Amino acid sequence: MRKVLSQFGEGLLQQKLSTGDLHFLSDAYTANGGNGTGPTPHEYLGAALAACTSMTLKMYSARKSIALENAIVTVDIERVDDVEKFSRAIEFIGNLSAEEKERLLEIANKCPIHKALAGQIQIKTQLVN
User: Fold this and answer.
1) Same domain, yes or no, for 74 and 17?
2) Number of folded domains in the chain?
3) Torsion sign over Cα 99, 102, 106, 107
4) Do the domain assignments include residue 124?
5) Of all residues in the chain, what percent carry a pLDDT higher than 70?
6) Average pLDDT of the chain?
7) Does one domain contain both 54 and 98?
């Protein structure tokens, strides 16, 4: 996996992010002191879960010849009593049987980001200068 780099951007809270040759921004909402120039870190976290879920479903359905035309994944995150609560809604587009839909829901829970978020996480922080 390519490393992700973050450094100060324009304005009070904007961050310039890069991974390899890709460049993007993160910011806070204007109501929280940012300029709203990019997704918030929590929105990127939700995007990671949504994208990983969709990718996993697309790969699985192709491998199993399931007629899944699209999987629309919506993720919302809210903090309640110091707990991050993820709500994920998945809409399947295609001519699918009830059994295929049930199996695809099982597969959605096997995406690597779902596993990472639902499992034990360790964060190691070190000073480099």
Assistant:
1) no
2) 2
3) positive
4) no
5) 100
6) 97
7) yes
Q: Residue 79: which of 91, 87, 71 has the closest Cα? A: 87
Distance of CA 23 to the CA centre of its chain: 17
Range of the domain at 13: 1-38
d(CA 3, CA 110): 23
Tell me, yes or no, whether 47 and 109 share the same domain: yes
- Residue 123 Rama label (left phi>0; alpha psi -120 to 50; beta): beta
Positive/negative CA dihedral, 114, 44, 58, 21: negative
Task: Give per-residue pLDDT as tens, 46-63.
Answer: 999 999 999 999 999 999
d(CA 104, CA 111): 11
Does 125 map to a domain? Answer: no
pTM of the model: 0.94
